[in-house]
Structures
1.
Amino acid sequence: MVNRKELDPERSPRAAFGARLRSLRDERGWTQDELAERMGCSGAHISAVETGRRAPTRRFSASADRVFGTGDRLERQGQAVRHTALLEGFPEYVAHEVRAAEIRLFELGIVPGLLQTPEYAAAMAAGAVRRGAITEQQAEERLTLLARRQASLEGAPTPLVYAVLDESCIRRPVGGPKVMAAQVDRLAAFAELPSTVFQVAPYDLGERRAFDLPVTLLTLTDRSHIAYAESAQQGRLERDMRFVQPLLTAYHQLQAESLSQAASVAMIKQLRKGTP
């Protein structure tokens, strides 16, 4: 079949649900549109669920169980998807991230996931578990996906990664002095890579700081651009250049206003002197 996307059910609970849905559909020889007609939705919706771009709602899972005669198995699997620790929209973003030619990051308060040490990431996940925001299983899911994302950056071709961190990212203690010392060392090592640019947006940037929220910008291999941002409830991908272009412009302005890479590295090395 032309342009049939390969599915990896091990990638996430959402991907596993999508692979199961496609398998059941293939067993019956139905097209996505034929399944959609039986379920009362669109073929595009079926495609989005199969490829993990959209999570199955309770209503969708129950309808699929009815059509396939699978009792409540799909609904129970869909419940596991909805209880995932990953925000809606994030799995779709990750699918683009691993294929990006350039990644631009701006973060507030915490070091971006792609730059975190395992210990720093574990401390953040443990804090979320203690607050009751996620379960231990969900914390493990987050850490497993983060390790996969970081590993993907080591493949060929290596993407260019631009990271601008608000000064709060390196000042906020996470996991204790030893964890922070290792994290600062990780940032210094990141800055030395030939495919990276590392900058700190200092506190005294004040109102000249271009963003008040974290933002991620991807340049894909076809030179198209995607923006990704998160709220407390969901992540959102934006492809419309009417909205993405102003973010790219603001990011370039932020880079111009931030410390140079040399000055940024000097700042974190000075900070490192105060850690064990």
2.
Amino acid sequence: MVNRKELNPNASPQAAFGARLRSAREARGWKQDELAARVGYSGRHISAVETGRKPPTPRFSRSVDVALGITGTSESFERALGEIRNGSLLEGFPEYVKHEKTAAEIRLFESGLVPGPLQTPAYAQALADSSVKRGVITREQADERVSFLMKRQNALVRRDPPLVIAVLDESCVRRPIGGAAVMDEQCERLVEFAEQPNTMLQVAPYVIGEHRTLDRLVNLLTLPDRSVISYVESQTQGHLDRALTSVLPLVRAYHQLQAVSLSQTASVDMIHQLRRGTP
């Protein structure tokens, strides 16, 4: 078949979803346009989901289930999407990471936890292990989550590295994760991050109170063409956005947060004090 892209279902949960969709379609002898007509989408959309260029949505997954006659079964694509969204990786996140690999600027904000690109392996493993113990994800998903994070971090080490700005709520550095040794190593990692020529680290202290303009994870990417996209996350959902009407308010809020946060020098001093056990 001309221009047939080979799929790697092990690349991510979204890639596995796309590969299984192609397999189910071909098992019925349908071309992409034939499946598209049955589910109310274009053949181009089917191709994009199969190759991982577009994330599946609940509506799309339900339509596929109806077309294939597997609604409510263990083979349901809606069920598979739920495992992606509530399992190791949230919807929209794999696509965000794809853009993160080529971004010129990366701006991160997190509350409660150190952002993924700044986490040590031990810190990330402690979080994953906790999710397994609570029954939120399986051991296999936990291993995938940590492996995915390490690959994500490695992708940021390149000849022309991006400018990475991280604003952390004070809770990120005060919340103990994995025990004293893990947190000490994590704090050391944050200090090392701040010393790099292409990075900036700021702590948003508790004392700014109501002037903290962001309340949950927000990532902003400036792409090589200078366009900006955002990725925001709740407990159970992730959302990638390119629309200026919704991205620009987040950019504005991020700058306002930087203005009331500690300087990098003061932020590093706070981290050193925490490592010494002083208030």
